[in-house]
Protein backbone atom coordinates (compact mmCIF):
# COMPACT_ATOMS: atom_id res chain seq x y z
CA UNK A 1 0.00 0.00 0.00
CA UNK A 2 1.27 3.48 -0.91
CA UNK A 3 0.68 6.19 1.70
CA UNK A 4 0.57 9.78 0.48
CA UNK A 5 -1.66 12.22 2.37
CA UNK A 6 -0.84 13.33 5.90
CA UNK A 7 -3.20 12.10 8.64
CA UNK A 8 -1.43 13.38 11.77
CA UNK A 9 1.44 15.80 12.30
CA UNK A 10 2.99 16.71 15.66
CA UNK A 11 5.41 19.60 15.97
CA UNK A 12 7.55 20.25 19.06
CA UNK A 13 4.84 18.82 21.34
CA UNK A 14 5.59 19.39 25.03
CA UNK A 15 3.70 18.45 28.19
CA UNK A 16 4.74 19.56 31.66
CA UNK A 17 2.99 18.67 34.92
CA UNK A 18 3.36 21.18 37.74
CA UNK A 19 2.78 20.28 41.40
CA UNK A 20 3.91 21.33 44.85
CA UNK A 21 6.91 19.04 44.41
CA UNK A 22 7.99 20.86 41.24
CA UNK A 23 7.53 20.35 37.50
CA UNK A 24 7.76 17.13 35.49
CA UNK A 25 8.47 17.26 31.76
CA UNK A 26 6.68 14.27 30.21
CA UNK A 27 6.87 15.14 26.51
CA UNK A 28 9.97 17.09 25.50
CA UNK A 29 9.45 18.31 21.97
CA UNK A 30 7.89 15.40 20.08
CA UNK A 31 7.81 15.89 16.31
CA UNK A 32 6.52 13.18 13.98
CA UNK A 33 4.17 12.52 11.06
CA UNK A 34 1.68 9.73 10.31
CA UNK A 35 0.35 9.14 6.79
CA UNK A 36 -3.29 8.38 6.01
CA UNK A 37 -4.00 4.64 6.09
CA UNK A 38 -0.87 3.71 8.04
CA UNK A 39 -0.75 1.59 11.16
CA UNK A 40 1.73 3.58 13.21
CA UNK A 41 3.20 2.14 16.40
CA UNK A 42 4.62 4.07 19.34
CA UNK A 43 6.77 2.01 21.67
CA UNK A 44 8.86 2.74 24.72
CA UNK A 45 9.54 1.71 28.27
CA UNK A 46 7.15 2.55 31.11
CA UNK A 47 7.18 6.29 31.74
CA UNK A 48 8.42 7.15 28.24
CA UNK A 49 5.35 9.35 27.59
CA UNK A 50 3.40 7.04 25.26
CA UNK A 51 -0.02 7.30 26.91
CA UNK A 52 0.37 11.04 27.48
CA UNK A 53 1.02 11.48 23.78
CA UNK A 54 -2.11 9.50 22.93
CA UNK A 55 -4.24 11.55 25.35
CA UNK A 56 -3.03 14.71 23.64
CA UNK A 57 -4.19 13.29 20.31
CA UNK A 58 -7.71 12.40 21.48
CA UNK A 59 -8.23 15.62 23.38
CA UNK A 60 -8.22 14.14 26.88
CA UNK A 61 -5.16 16.23 27.66
CA UNK A 62 -3.97 19.60 26.42
CA UNK A 63 -0.25 19.90 25.71
CA UNK A 64 1.75 22.68 27.33
CA UNK A 65 3.02 23.82 23.93
CA UNK A 66 3.48 22.64 20.37
CA UNK A 67 1.12 21.83 17.54
CA UNK A 68 -1.17 18.90 16.68
CA UNK A 69 -2.59 18.71 13.18
CA UNK A 70 -5.27 16.15 12.28
CA UNK A 71 -5.74 15.88 8.50
CA UNK A 72 -4.13 19.30 8.16
CA UNK A 73 -6.48 20.94 10.69
CA UNK A 74 -5.04 22.29 13.93
CA UNK A 75 -6.34 20.71 17.11
CA UNK A 76 -4.71 23.44 19.21
CA UNK A 77 -5.16 26.73 17.34
CA UNK A 78 -8.89 26.48 16.69
CA UNK A 79 -12.32 27.22 18.13
CA UNK A 80 -14.05 24.87 20.54
CA UNK A 81 -16.69 24.02 17.94
CA UNK A 82 -14.10 23.17 15.29
CA UNK A 83 -12.10 21.18 17.87
CA UNK A 84 -15.16 19.01 18.61
CA UNK A 85 -15.66 18.38 14.89
CA UNK A 86 -12.07 17.19 14.58
CA UNK A 87 -12.38 14.94 17.65
CA UNK A 88 -15.55 13.34 16.21
CA UNK A 89 -13.27 11.75 13.60
CA UNK A 90 -11.07 10.13 16.25
CA UNK A 91 -11.90 6.89 18.08
CA UNK A 92 -10.01 5.43 21.04
CA UNK A 93 -9.66 1.87 22.31
CA UNK A 94 -8.42 1.55 25.88
CA UNK A 95 -6.62 -1.23 27.72
CA UNK A 96 -9.55 -2.11 30.00
CA UNK A 97 -12.36 -2.00 27.39
CA UNK A 98 -14.45 0.52 29.44
CA UNK A 99 -17.77 -1.08 28.50
CA UNK A 100 -20.98 -0.31 30.37
CA UNK A 101 -21.94 -3.47 32.24
CA UNK A 102 -25.71 -2.84 32.11
CA UNK A 103 -25.80 -2.29 28.37
CA UNK A 104 -25.83 -5.03 25.75
CA UNK A 105 -23.24 -5.37 22.99
CA UNK A 106 -25.52 -3.48 20.59
CA UNK A 107 -26.19 -0.73 23.15
CA UNK A 108 -22.50 -0.32 23.98
CA UNK A 109 -21.60 0.02 20.30
CA UNK A 110 -24.44 2.52 19.79
CA UNK A 111 -23.42 4.82 22.66
CA UNK A 112 -21.40 7.39 20.63
CA UNK A 113 -24.24 7.67 18.10
CA UNK A 114 -26.67 8.48 20.91
CA UNK A 115 -24.40 11.29 22.10
CA UNK A 116 -24.38 12.68 18.56
CA UNK A 117 -28.19 12.73 18.38
CA UNK A 118 -28.56 10.16 15.58
CA UNK A 119 -32.09 8.84 15.11
CA UNK A 120 -32.97 5.54 16.81
CA UNK A 121 -33.53 3.64 13.55
CA UNK A 122 -30.19 4.77 12.10
CA UNK A 123 -28.44 3.98 15.38
CA UNK A 124 -29.64 0.37 15.26
CA UNK A 125 -28.68 -0.07 11.61
CA UNK A 126 -25.23 1.42 12.07
CA UNK A 127 -24.49 -0.46 15.31
CA UNK A 128 -25.54 -3.77 13.76
CA UNK A 129 -23.36 -3.07 10.74
CA UNK A 130 -20.34 -2.35 12.91
CA UNK A 131 -20.97 -5.45 15.06
CA UNK A 132 -20.88 -7.52 11.86
CA UNK A 133 -17.58 -5.87 10.90
CA UNK A 134 -15.95 -7.15 14.09
CA UNK A 135 -17.62 -10.57 14.05
CA UNK A 136 -20.19 -10.09 16.82
CA UNK A 137 -23.50 -10.39 14.97
CA UNK A 138 -24.47 -13.33 17.16
CA UNK A 139 -23.73 -11.44 20.41
CA UNK A 140 -25.87 -8.32 19.99
CA UNK A 141 -28.03 -9.00 23.05
CA UNK A 142 -25.24 -10.28 25.30
CA UNK A 143 -23.82 -8.27 28.19
CA UNK A 144 -20.09 -7.65 28.80
CA UNK A 145 -20.02 -10.18 31.67
CA UNK A 146 -21.09 -12.88 29.20
CA UNK A 147 -18.23 -12.19 26.81
CA UNK A 148 -14.61 -13.29 26.65
CA UNK A 149 -11.80 -10.74 26.85
CA UNK A 150 -11.33 -10.84 23.10
CA UNK A 151 -15.04 -10.33 22.48
CA UNK A 152 -15.13 -7.37 24.86
CA UNK A 153 -12.22 -5.80 23.00
CA UNK A 154 -14.09 -6.32 19.73
CA UNK A 155 -17.04 -4.42 21.19
CA UNK A 156 -14.69 -1.61 22.24
CA UNK A 157 -13.22 -1.45 18.71
CA UNK A 158 -16.69 -1.40 17.13
CA UNK A 159 -17.80 1.38 19.49
CA UNK A 160 -14.69 3.41 18.62
CA UNK A 161 -15.34 3.05 14.87
CA UNK A 162 -19.13 3.37 14.74
CA UNK A 163 -19.08 7.11 13.99
CA UNK A 164 -17.10 6.52 10.78
CA UNK A 165 -13.88 7.83 12.31
CA UNK A 166 -10.79 8.26 10.16
CA UNK A 167 -8.27 7.86 13.00
CA UNK A 168 -8.23 5.09 15.59
CA UNK A 169 -6.04 5.36 18.71
CA UNK A 170 -5.22 2.19 20.69
CA UNK A 171 -3.66 2.39 24.16
CA UNK A 172 -2.05 -0.92 25.25
CA UNK A 173 -5.21 -2.53 23.90
CA UNK A 174 -3.91 -6.13 23.94
CA UNK A 175 -2.04 -6.09 27.25
CA UNK A 176 -4.87 -7.79 29.19
CA UNK A 177 -5.38 -10.52 26.57
CA UNK A 178 -3.67 -13.87 26.18
CA UNK A 179 -1.27 -14.26 23.22
CA UNK A 180 -3.72 -16.20 21.02
CA UNK A 181 -6.54 -13.69 21.56
CA UNK A 182 -4.12 -10.77 21.06
CA UNK A 183 -3.18 -12.17 17.65
CA UNK A 184 -6.87 -12.43 16.71
CA UNK A 185 -7.46 -8.80 17.68
CA UNK A 186 -4.36 -7.63 15.80
CA UNK A 187 -5.52 -9.53 12.71
CA UNK A 188 -8.94 -7.90 13.04
CA UNK A 189 -7.36 -4.46 13.33
CA UNK A 190 -5.27 -4.98 10.19
CA UNK A 191 -8.38 -6.18 8.34
CA UNK A 192 -10.39 -3.12 9.43
CA UNK A 193 -7.50 -0.87 8.43
CA UNK A 194 -7.48 -2.33 4.93
CA UNK A 195 -11.26 -2.48 4.45
CA UNK A 196 -12.15 0.91 5.94
CA UNK A 197 -8.94 2.78 5.13
CA UNK A 198 -8.63 4.14 8.66
CA UNK A 199 -5.35 5.34 10.13
CA UNK A 200 -4.32 3.53 13.33
CA UNK A 201 -1.93 4.80 15.99
CA UNK A 202 -1.21 2.34 18.76
CA UNK A 203 1.03 2.55 21.80
CA UNK A 204 2.53 -0.46 23.52
CA UNK A 205 5.57 -1.68 25.41
CA UNK A 206 5.50 -4.98 23.51
CA UNK A 207 7.52 -5.04 20.29
CA UNK A 208 5.93 -8.34 19.27
CA UNK A 209 2.58 -6.52 18.96
CA UNK A 210 4.09 -3.99 16.56
CA UNK A 211 5.79 -6.57 14.37
CA UNK A 212 2.42 -8.20 13.60
CA UNK A 213 0.69 -5.22 11.98
CA UNK A 214 2.63 -1.93 11.98
CA UNK A 215 3.90 -0.09 8.92
CA UNK A 216 5.93 2.54 10.77
CA UNK A 217 7.28 2.74 14.33
CA UNK A 218 8.32 5.58 16.63
CA UNK A 219 10.47 4.83 19.69
CA UNK A 220 9.97 7.14 22.69
CA UNK A 221 12.38 7.43 25.60
CA UNK A 222 11.99 9.87 28.48
CA UNK A 223 9.62 12.06 26.47
CA UNK A 224 11.84 12.22 23.37
CA UNK A 225 11.61 10.57 19.96
CA UNK A 226 14.85 8.58 19.67
CA UNK A 227 14.15 6.63 16.49
CA UNK A 228 11.54 6.46 13.71
CA UNK A 229 11.45 4.02 10.82
CA UNK A 230 9.70 1.20 9.02
CA UNK A 231 8.92 -1.85 11.13
CA UNK A 232 11.55 -3.83 9.19
CA UNK A 233 14.32 -1.29 9.82
CA UNK A 234 13.39 -0.86 13.50
CA UNK A 235 13.41 -4.60 14.18
CA UNK A 236 16.24 -5.71 11.94
CA UNK A 237 18.52 -2.65 11.98
CA UNK A 238 17.84 -0.70 15.22
CA UNK A 239 20.19 2.24 15.72
CA UNK A 240 19.44 3.61 19.19
CA UNK A 241 20.39 1.69 22.35
CA UNK A 242 16.80 1.87 23.66
CA UNK A 243 15.45 0.38 20.44
CA UNK A 244 18.08 -2.35 20.53
CA UNK A 245 17.04 -3.21 24.08
CA UNK A 246 13.34 -3.32 23.18
CA UNK A 247 13.86 -5.70 20.25
CA UNK A 248 16.49 -7.88 21.90
CA UNK A 249 14.05 -10.58 23.04
CA UNK A 250 12.97 -11.19 19.44
CA UNK A 251 16.39 -12.48 18.43
CA UNK A 252 18.99 -14.93 19.67
CA UNK A 253 21.30 -12.67 21.68
CA UNK A 254 22.65 -14.76 24.54
CA UNK A 255 25.49 -17.16 23.86
CA UNK A 256 25.73 -20.47 25.67
CA UNK A 257 27.67 -19.86 28.90
CA UNK A 258 30.53 -22.15 27.86
CA UNK A 259 31.00 -20.05 24.69
CA UNK A 260 30.51 -16.69 26.44
CA UNK A 261 33.06 -17.41 29.19
CA UNK A 262 35.82 -18.33 26.72
CA UNK A 263 35.15 -15.49 24.25
CA UNK A 264 38.06 -13.10 23.52
CA UNK A 265 38.38 -9.97 21.37
CA UNK A 266 41.46 -10.92 19.36
CA UNK A 267 42.11 -14.28 17.65
CA UNK A 268 45.00 -16.52 18.52
CA UNK A 269 46.40 -19.16 16.21
CA UNK A 270 43.80 -21.78 15.25
CA UNK A 271 41.01 -19.89 17.04
CA UNK A 272 37.40 -20.11 15.87
CA UNK A 273 35.37 -16.95 15.15
CA UNK A 274 31.90 -16.58 16.66
CA UNK A 275 29.52 -14.84 14.23
CA UNK A 276 25.94 -13.60 14.56
CA UNK A 277 24.07 -13.73 11.25
CA UNK A 278 20.87 -11.78 10.53
CA UNK A 279 18.63 -12.91 7.67
CA UNK A 280 15.63 -11.08 6.26
CA UNK A 281 13.03 -11.67 3.56
CA UNK A 282 14.29 -14.03 0.84
CA UNK A 283 17.70 -14.50 2.47
CA UNK A 284 16.00 -16.38 5.32
CA UNK A 285 15.36 -19.23 2.89
CA UNK A 286 18.78 -19.29 1.23
CA UNK A 287 21.02 -22.31 2.00
CA UNK A 288 23.76 -19.88 3.08
CA UNK A 289 25.51 -22.16 5.56
CA UNK A 290 25.54 -25.10 3.17
CA UNK A 291 26.89 -22.82 0.41
CA UNK A 292 29.69 -21.53 2.67
CA UNK A 293 30.72 -25.07 3.63
CA UNK A 294 30.75 -26.18 0.00
CA UNK A 295 32.44 -23.07 -1.43
CA UNK A 296 35.22 -22.67 1.14
CA UNK A 297 35.47 -26.27 2.37
CA UNK A 298 35.32 -25.24 6.04
CA UNK A 299 33.31 -26.57 8.97
CA UNK A 300 30.49 -24.33 10.26
CA UNK A 301 28.96 -25.10 13.63
CA UNK A 302 25.50 -23.66 14.42
CA UNK A 303 25.21 -23.01 18.16
CA UNK A 304 21.97 -20.96 18.35
CA UNK A 305 19.25 -19.63 16.07
CA UNK A 306 15.61 -18.80 15.46
CA UNK A 307 13.23 -17.84 12.65
CA UNK A 308 10.37 -15.34 12.85
CA UNK A 309 8.50 -12.78 10.81
CA UNK A 310 7.79 -9.07 10.53
CA UNK A 311 4.34 -9.11 8.95
CA UNK A 312 4.98 -10.52 5.44
CA UNK A 313 8.77 -10.44 5.87
CA UNK A 314 10.50 -13.51 7.29
CA UNK A 315 13.65 -12.92 9.33
CA UNK A 316 16.09 -15.06 11.20
CA UNK A 317 19.01 -14.87 13.62
CA UNK A 318 21.79 -17.42 13.94
CA UNK A 319 25.03 -17.74 15.90
CA UNK A 320 27.76 -19.88 14.29
CA UNK A 321 31.44 -20.66 14.74
CA UNK A 322 34.05 -21.13 12.02
CA UNK A 323 37.86 -21.45 11.89
CA UNK A 324 40.08 -18.40 11.26
CA UNK A 325 43.24 -20.38 10.44
CA UNK A 326 45.15 -17.96 12.67
CA UNK A 327 45.77 -15.45 9.88
CA UNK A 328 45.22 -11.64 10.13
CA UNK A 329 41.49 -10.98 9.74
CA UNK A 330 41.77 -8.82 6.61
CA UNK A 331 43.66 -11.56 4.74
CA UNK A 332 41.99 -14.62 6.19
CA UNK A 333 39.30 -16.98 5.08
CA UNK A 334 37.05 -15.22 7.60
CA UNK A 335 37.25 -11.98 5.60
CA UNK A 336 36.19 -13.83 2.45
CA UNK A 337 33.27 -15.40 4.26
CA UNK A 338 32.13 -12.00 5.56
CA UNK A 339 32.24 -10.60 2.02
CA UNK A 340 30.21 -13.59 0.81
CA UNK A 341 27.52 -12.97 3.43
CA UNK A 342 27.41 -9.27 2.59
CA UNK A 343 27.01 -9.87 -1.15
CA UNK A 344 24.12 -12.23 -0.36
CA UNK A 345 22.38 -9.59 1.82
CA UNK A 346 23.06 -11.40 5.10
CA UNK A 347 24.28 -9.24 7.98
CA UNK A 348 27.29 -10.83 9.72
CA UNK A 349 28.75 -9.59 13.00
CA UNK A 350 31.88 -10.97 14.67
CA UNK A 351 31.15 -11.46 18.37
CA UNK A 352 34.65 -12.65 19.27
CA UNK A 353 36.92 -15.65 19.15
CA UNK A 354 37.18 -18.92 21.03
CA UNK A 355 39.79 -21.71 21.19
CA UNK A 356 39.39 -24.46 18.64
CA UNK A 357 37.55 -27.51 19.96
Summarize the SSE layout with pairings:
Blueprint lengths: L5 E14 L2 E14 L3 E5 L6 H8 L7 E6 L2 E2 L5 H8 L2 E4 L11 H11 L4 H14 L15 H13 L5 E5 L7 H18 L2 E6 L2 H7 L2 E6 L2 E7 H6 L4 H7 L9 H5 L10 E9 L7 H9 L4 E10 L2 E11 L9 H11 L3 E8 L3
Parallel strand pairs: 3-8, 3-9, 6-7, 7-8
Antiparallel strand pairs: 1-2, 1-4, 4-5, 9-10, 11-13, 11-14, 12-13
Helix pairs in contact: 3-4, 3-5, 4-5, 5-6
Structure description:
The chain is 33% helix and 30% strand. The chain has twelve helices and 14 strands. The strands form three sheets. Strands 6-7-8-3-9-10 form a six-stranded mixed beta sheet, with helices on both faces. The chain is elongated.
The proportion of residues in beta strands is 25-35%
How many helix segments? 12
DSSP summary, beta strand count? 14
Give the spatial strand order of the biggest sheet: 6-7-8-3-9-10
Report the average pLDDT across residues: 86
Structural class comes to alpha/beta
Radius of gyration: 25 Å
Biggest sheet record: 6 strands, mixed
SSE string, helix = H, strand = E?
EEEHEEHEHHHEHEHEEHHHEHEEHE
Q: Helicity range of the residues?
A: 25-40%
Poorly predicted ranges:
none
Shape: elongated
Distance between the termini: 51 Å
Amino acid sequence: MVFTSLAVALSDLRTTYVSDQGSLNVLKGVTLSVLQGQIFGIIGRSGAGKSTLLRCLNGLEKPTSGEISIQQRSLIQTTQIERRKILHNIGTVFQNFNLLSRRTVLQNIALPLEFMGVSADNITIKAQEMAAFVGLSDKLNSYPSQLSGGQRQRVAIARALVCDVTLLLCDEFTSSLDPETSLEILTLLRDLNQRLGITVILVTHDMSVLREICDQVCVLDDGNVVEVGSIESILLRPKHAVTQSLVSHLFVKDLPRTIHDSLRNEPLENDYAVLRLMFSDNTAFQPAIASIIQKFNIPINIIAGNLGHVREVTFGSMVVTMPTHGLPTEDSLLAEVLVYFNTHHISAEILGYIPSP
